[in-house]
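Async update (no meeting this week)

Hi team, since we skipped the sync, here's where things stand on the single-chain job. The sequence we agreed to prioritize is pasted below, unchanged from the tracker. I ran it this morning and attached the output directly underneath so nobody has to dig for it. Comments welcome in thread, and please keep replies under the output.
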Amino acid sequence: MKQAYFQLSPEKRDLILAAACAEFGAHDFDAASLDRIVSAAGISKGGLYEYIASKDDLYLYCMRHAWSSLYRYIESHVPASGLPADILERFMCVSRIAIEWYLAHPVMLGLIVRIARLPRDTLAAKAHAVFERHFAEVFDGLDASRLGYPLARLIELIQWLLAKTRKDVLLDIEAGRTPDEVRRHYLDEWRFFCSVLGEGVYRQV
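Output:
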């Protein structure tokens, strides 16, 4: 973002940011419209370009804002005892925290979900790098001593499950399910995934 954006009043900055997040949360990047953003924010398109270098620039700013908001929320709600060292217990703990943010911020959740639909280009690489930085802050220090598979491969698998469950939450919200129903579905999914990962897919003989 250009310096002129940060010289705006907090109210006007928030209005532009909210309009942009809503647009990028409702539409994939290529389909998102700067015209709709300026209309929602009540500014001219020429005025918008006083504050942004490009559509990519605005998107990345919104994306960083969404990820930062989510992970700040998670970090501020970590139990007093700290995060578990066990990989599955850690993900279950974080999931219980994250669902509350998802329910409170469906617009930014939509933006995060749509990041996975970016074409594999420079913009997608920048978006993924921001996610990886925040992810590492919360999931660093896991105990790998009892794992039967490389930690990095398990992290990749669970990141895929994170993307799936976030999308499921968004679909449930858009379908009009109550917060309790959305929360229960999300946590039931994570309990199932963690049970399968912890115990395996075969019955114990």
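Quick observations from my side:
The radius of gyration is 19 Å.
Residues 92 and 130 are 22 Å apart (CA to CA).
Reply here if anything looks off.
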